[in-house]
């Protein structure tokens, strides 16, 4: 009878990096373990657009040959990159063949920073066309939520979240223009951090989606999210310090009129408030003032992001999905009507920053989602209106904080009655990324969550 060999699949990024630095394992072994798991698991999940098998092994061997492993916070850690972020040697797909760009000659800056920290790029994860929607599929595959294959992992960083939740990588890079890191994190039971504006170099089309988009991290633990954030931001990782007594605003109010959180998401916020109180913080019921104009101007900007991106890339619109063609056309109309204005975004940012001072609060707690994630189906074949309504109805809470450029984080707090994970969103003023992570760490300590979806690796069988 063949003996089962231990594996590093399911280990945290910090466990892996520590073991590689100590010489308890090699980056090559870690990457080989994960590639073997990807070959099995991704047939059902469809998280990856491309897997860099041979290239990843070669890069792992180079890490093993380095003399300065002690200075690599992600030594030997397999990482996935969202397919709209340039990786040298790969095309940049941007969600479909129609908007695919040629093989990149150089890495995006965030990829360069990850490599510099010792990470191994395992491959490119799937996203919807142009990153426009909160579900992930295209003409070649439907990406599925590892917790329930009949449900979406969210979007647009849906492939990244599915890869982490199924243990194919311990952490993944994503980007977040209107919730595209936090929504998948909530769908898949992960920690998802969107840094504030300008903290991490973005360098995406349409002037970083008019300043709305930021690169972030998806992880199964707060510690891994903190290390990943530090690397993306070009900082030395810091030990998270539990924050002293905070005053936290709690709000269920939806930014979208007529859309309200369902009972599991309301219960999640109540659970989050109890965890805050147990950690010694004060909570107060205060609602941000979401104006009607914010919704109209926000949607107009979302539309125009696609229009600008297509124009800059010189894409033939006839090759786009039907929903994307409609989106681009509406974006052009919104621009002609003068609905996309920088002064509106600046005004909302100023109002959002003032919210914390006006109410003497340090953070804001909201639902992460309003309802259950939509079915995992071919949304790319459905109408633009159907996609719009599905996304707004289940995920309205993330977008305002992109418009404001404020840091925001999603953290798991339990399970829905249907077995899917549920999370809450924490929002802070500029520069509060470490504070958000510190509070999330208090949540994790008081109410640990299941790190991976059922049926996927939960704990490492080889530890440091």
Question: Can you offer a commentary on this structure?
Answer:
The protein is 40% helix and 13% strand. The two termini are 27 Å apart. Helix 9 packs across helix 15 and helix 10 (292-313) crosses helix 11. It is globular and about 55 Å long. The chain has helices at 13-22, 27-45, 53-65, 109-116, 158-165, 182-188, 205-211, 222-232, 263-278, 292-313, 322-336, 342-358, 384-394, 399-404, 433-446, and strands at residues 48-51, 78-82, 120-125, 171-176, 191-194, 214-219, 247-250, 282-285, 363-367, 408-415, 421-427. An eleven-stranded mixed β-sheet has the order 1-3-2-4-6-5-10-11-9-7-8, sandwiched between helices. The protein is α/β, with parallel strands linked by helices and 464 residues long. It has a single domain (13-446), classed as Amidase signature (AS) domain (Amidase signature (AS) enzymes), CATH 3.90.1300.
What's the rounded overall pLDDT mean? Answer: 95
Strand content: 5-15%
Do you know the CATH architecture? Alpha-Beta Complex
Distance between the termini: 27 Å
Main sheet overview: 11 strands, mixed
What ranges have pLDDT less than 50 throughout 5 or more consecutive residues? Answer: none
What's the domain count?
1
The CATH topology label is Amidase signature (AS) enzymes
Radius of gyration: 21 Å
In percent, how helical is the residue content? 25-40%
Strands, count? 11
Strand order of the largest sheet: 1-3-2-4-6-5-10-11-9-7-8
Shape: globular
Q: What oligomeric state do the depicted chains represent?
A: single chain
